[in-house]
Structures are given as structure tokens and as C-alpha cells.
Amino acid sequence: YGLSSEHPAPRFFRDCTEPKKSYDAVIIGGGGHGLAAAYYLAKDYGITNVAVLEKGYIGGGNTGRNTTIVRSNYLTPEGVNFYDASVKLYEDLSEELDLNLFYSTRGHFTLAHTESAMRTMRWRAEVNKHVGVESYVVGPEEISKACPQLDISCSGQAPILGALYHAPGSVARHDAVAWGYAKEADRMGVEIFQMTEVTGIDTKGGKVVGVNTSKGYISTNRVLSAVAGFTPRITEMVDLKTPIVIHPLQACVSEPMKPWLDTILVSGSLHVYVSQSSRGELVMGSSLDPYEFHSTRSSLDFVEGLTTHITDMFPFLSNVKVVRQWAGMADITPDFAPIMGKTPLEGFYLDAGWGTWGFKATPISGKTMAETIAKDMAPDLIKSFRLSRFEDYELTGEKGAASVGH
Ligand code: FAD
Ligand code: PYC
Questions:
Q1: N or C: which terminus of the chain has fewer CB atoms within 10 Å of its end residue's CB?
Q2: What is the pLDDT of residues 253-303, one digit of tens each?
Q3: Ligand 1 contact, 358 CB (< 6 A)
């Protein structure tokens, strides 16, 4: 299959080209979140007259650009509960979607190089344990045992004092997550349109009535925006103010090596993190770029800084080559928690503010946004992520746990 025009490769989902005139719901964005919401709308609520509109190709946004870390070792009880529900869905997802997502549980170490970082690790460990999530503080000996290749002194630059160890920390194949949700949503009747851009949202009397697209007008009274780094472009269509700002987040991979790194390591102080993929590449990234920028351009500055710090941790990697680097557009909120749920515009639902932390949330965000759309009411699990928290001064402060230092 796939070798000739008589035997084209089997498709994951139908090749939908012309949208119908009307749908029960329209989802903007064919990333993991939009596709997962479509899947759970169909599976949990039988709502299948749904169109997913993707301006490029599915998974081509941050879903296909992230470094695939899945974990629930957050700082607030609301965050830990939410991400823990996602980890649980991920654990059975390959079977549920009938597709190998290469979900691989490795254990996740957040390294602490200072006493103040150790304090945050203890804090997170206590909150995690309280909510029933397996995280605890470990010393340098336990870190060395799990990763003997790591130079605990970090070449004398920033000796490691300890770490937060999180047993469920995992990696997965990111594009397969998008394909799996697309495949199963399509099978239940959802229509997925690639190369189809939403250019406007039509409203009447404070309600959504349709969307303008590069393939014509579609009537609908329910629209979900799940566009991550493009969120400001969509919210400005309906005059909705959010505190989201867009910063680049960059990553890279090394040439493949035989497996040697079993765990996932994150260093907030050195601003780097690393895991080894099932293909043998080291998957590496650093903190957000410090400027607002709506672009997926990657930079030499990033890869120079990153490789300097990675070789502080692993001096033996100095001759290993970086083979690809890229950037995504991270939609950052002031409290480093997402924005999910209803908005003041009736029928317009928002799934955004996923910044550097949204891949791990793909299953639970899809499930809870599907519930919000189906019932026109957000479930309790996402109430602390509502947009109105910024007016009520009830932030959900996750900065200390969002990913690497910011
Ligand atoms: P996306 O995958 O970006 O999908 C949005 C889609 O909307 C895009 O495909 C886009 O083309 C489409 N779109 C935009 N505008 C329109 C329009 N007008 N009409 C139609 N379609 C439109 N998170 C983790 O949990 N763990 C990690 O290890 C991790 N690492 C990361 C590393 C990097 C380098 C980056 C950039 C991010 C990382 N993240 C991580 C964050 C994570 O990638 C995102 O939060 C998550 O993928 C967001 O998924 P999404 O489906 O909401 O958005
Ligand atoms: O959320 O764990 C995370 C993460 C790591 C790198 C980017 N995000």
C-alpha cells in the first residue's frame, strides 16, 4: 500500500473538502485539543454533526512541535487534580484510539540547584501527595542511581542539591495523539477539513450564529476556539479581551543514539530539559523566549545556550550533533494556567492559554470542553480555569510548576 496510485496508502480519516452549510458545532483548530473535543463530543454525547476546521494540516501547530512530556506534578490542588485526570486518560489511550501512541512512563526529575528551588520541590511534593499523586523529594544519590551519566556538579556550574521525583512522568508520540483522535472522531461522523481557515465569526444579539471560512459561510450556534498560539487572532474576531500573550518556545533534537537515558530530566536553573525518544533522539528544550513574538522562527542563540547547559549536565555529549530545531507559539497567561470554558458571548467557547504545558492536557481538555459545549456548563474540574478569574482576582498560580524556568 502507498506505493502506487492503484493502491494508495490507507487514510486515517476521510478527505473532506466541501463543508456543509450548517453544523451543530464548529471547532476551530485541528490540533490535539480541537480533535480531542470533537472525539469526546461524538463519543460521550452523540454529537456528531461537527466540523473541525484546520487552516494547515492536523497536528501542525504546537501539537506537533512539543516535547511530549506528560505529568501531573503541579503546584495547586486544582492543577494537580486536572492533570492527573489527563494522565489517567493517557494511560489507556493507545487502546481506546486503537493506535500505538508510544506512551512511555519514564519517571520525571525536576532538579533543584538552590535551597529556594528545594523549597518549591517540597511544596509541590506535599500538594501532590495530598491529592494522591506519586511525587516526592529525592537527594543526589537517588538521582545518580536513576541517571548515572548525569554530572551531579553540572561541571561545577550549579551543583544539584536534590529533585522532585514524579513517578508517572511520561512521553508519547505527539502527532499520533492528533491522528488517533482524528481517526476515531471521523469514524463516528465528525468531518475534518484541513487547509480551511476561519476568517470571521458571525454573531447576532450576543450569540454566535456562524463562521466565515476560506471555503464559505457555515451556520452554527456553537463554536469552540482551540487554536493555542493563534488565540488572539480569533478572540479579536468577537471583540473578546483575554490576558494571553504569545512568546516563542523553542526545542531541538540530537542525532539518534542507542537508548541510555531512561528518565526525563528538567533543570529550572539551567533552563533546559531532556528525554530520549523511542527513535533514540535526545529531545531537548529550554525556557520561553523572553519577548512577545508571533512567529515560529527558531534561533542560533537558543541552540547555543541549550547545548552549553546540556553539556554542563552531560559533558560526554559534546560531540553529539543537533539535527533539527524549531519553535512554537506559546499562548501564555499571567498565572500559567489555561483558560477554559464559556465566554460572555453565548455559544462561543474558549480552550486556550496552554502556553508551554498543554500537550499533557490534551485528553482531559477535550473531554471537559466537550462536556462544556454539550451541556453549556463547565464541569467543576475546570472551574478554576474560567476566563472571569482575571476579573475576580482568583488566579490559579502555576508558574512554579509550568515547566522549565520562565
Ligand atoms: P495547536 O496544536 O497549536 O493547534 C491549533 C491549531 O489551530 C493549529 O494547527 C493551527 O493551524 C490552527 N488554527 C489557528 N488559527 C486557525 C484559523 N483561523 N482557522 C483554522 N485553524 C486555525 N506541553 C506539554 O504538556 N508538555 C511538553 O513537553 C510541551 N513541550 C512544548 C515544547 C514546545 C517547543 C512548544 C511550542 C510547546 C510545548 N508544549 C508542551 C505545549 C503544547 O505543545 C501546547 O500547549 C499544545 O500542543 C496545544 O495544543 P492545541 O491543540 O491547543 O494547539
Ligand atoms: O509541561 O512538562 C512540561 C513541559 C516541558 C517542556 C515544555 N513543557
A1: N
A2: 999 999 999 999 999 889 999 999 999 999 999 999 999 999 999 999 999
A3: yes
With cut-offs at 50, 70 and 90, classify the pLDDT of residue 2: very low
User: Using a 6 Å cutoff on CB, does residue 66 contact ligand 1?
Assistant: yes
Nearest alpha carbon, ligand 1 atom 6: 29
- CA 50-180-380 angle, to 5 degrees, is 65
Regarding an ipTM greater than 0.95, the answer is: yes
Instruction: Please report, rounded to a whole number, the percentage of residues in the chain having pLDDT higher than 70.
Output: 97
pTM above 0.90, yes or no: yes
Distance 62 CA to ligand 1 centre (A): 3
**What is the Cα–Cα distance from 366 to 54, expressed in whole angstroms?**
16
Please check whether residue 177 is in contact with residue 33, taking contact to mean a CB–CB distance below 8 angstroms: no
Q: What is the pLDDT of residue 404?
A: 72
Strand partners, 327: 250
User: How far, in Å, from the CA of 351 to the mean position of ligand 1?
Assistant: 11
According to DSSP, residue 213 is labeled E
Under DSSP, the state recorded for 342 is E
Q: What is the distance between the alpha carbons of residues 203 and 201, in angstroms, rounded to a whole number?
A: 7
Count of CB atoms within 10 A of residue 79's CB? 27
Q: For a substitution probing ligand 2, which of 66, 83, 111, 326 has the most ligand atoms within 8 Å of its CB? A: 66
For residue 13, how far is its CA from the centre of ligand 2 (angstroms)? Answer: 29
Could you tell me the three cell numbers for 353?
A: 492559554
Position 400 confidence tier, pLDDT thresholds 50, 70, 90: confident
**Proximal ligand: closest to the CA of 359:** 1
What pLDDT shows up at residue 65? Answer: 98
Contacts 24+ apart (CB under 8 A), 308-312: 309/267, 309/270, 309/271, 309/272, 310/272, 310/274, 310/282, 310/284, 311/155, 312/151, 312/154, 312/155, 312/157, 312/158, 312/270
- What's the confidence (pLDDT) of residue 405? 63
Which amino acid belongs to residue 311? Answer: T
C-beta of 253 in contact with ligand 1 (< 6 A): no
